[in-house]
Amino acid sequence: MRKVVRSRVWRNPQRLIRKMAKELKISRGSLQTIVKRDLGLSSFKKRKVHFLSNKIKTKRLSRSKALHRRFAAQGLDQVFSPMKNFSPLNKHSIVKTIEYYLKHFYYP
Predict the structure, then answer these.
(1) 43 pLDDT exceeds 90?
(2) pLDDT score at 72
(3) How would residue 10 be classed by pLDDT, with cut points 50, 70 and 90?
(4) What's the rounded Cα separation, in Å, for the pair 6 and 9?
(5) 51-101, pLDDT tens digit by residue?
(6) pTM to 2 decimal places
(7) Of 44, 45, 47, which is closest to residue 36 (Cα–Cα)?
(8) Contact between residue 67 and residue 61 where contact means Cβ atoms under 8 Å apart
(9) Of the candidates 52, 29, 60, which has an alpha carbon nearest to the alpha carbon of residue 20?
(10) Residues 67 and 60: beta-carbon distance below 8 Å
(11) Which structural domain range is residue 25 located in?
(12) How far apart are CA 100 and CA 93, in angstroms?
């Protein structure tokens, strides 16, 4: 089955997995497993992206450094965390979490 799928994908890489599964009379999930795990392929879509020239890169770098200096001097008022809403019950753990994020992510 892998050889058949490999040859079909090789001939037409834009072929839909759903259609190929119908043609081969196997489930879509099984075909996705063959394509992703066994053949090591993954789908992607080409997109137009913003071109970063050297001038733009240096400008962005200088702005980010200026922001970093400004907020390092002022201190941090807001902390963004992947945790859910902070509860007042465990203030000690909240303080430790904030210290960890500041130490590892904001001021390396």
Answers:
(1) no
(2) 74
(3) confident
(4) 5
(5) 889 999 999 999 988 888 877 776 655 656 665 555 555 666 667 777 777
(6) 0.43
(7) 44
(8) no
(9) 29
(10) no
(11) 2-38
(12) 10
pLDDT of 22: 94
**Number of structural domains the chain divides into:** 2
Inside any domain, residue 79: yes
Three-class SS string for 37-97? HHCCCCCCCCCCCCCCCHHHHHHHHHHHHHHHHHHHHHCCCCCCCCCCCCCHHHHHHHHHH
Instruction: Check residue 87 and give its pLDDT.
Output: 56
Both 66 and 95 in a single domain? yes
Dist. CA 17–CA 29, nearest whole Å: 9
* Token digits of residue 36: 């992703």
CA-based angle 73:77:81, to the nearest 5? Answer: 120
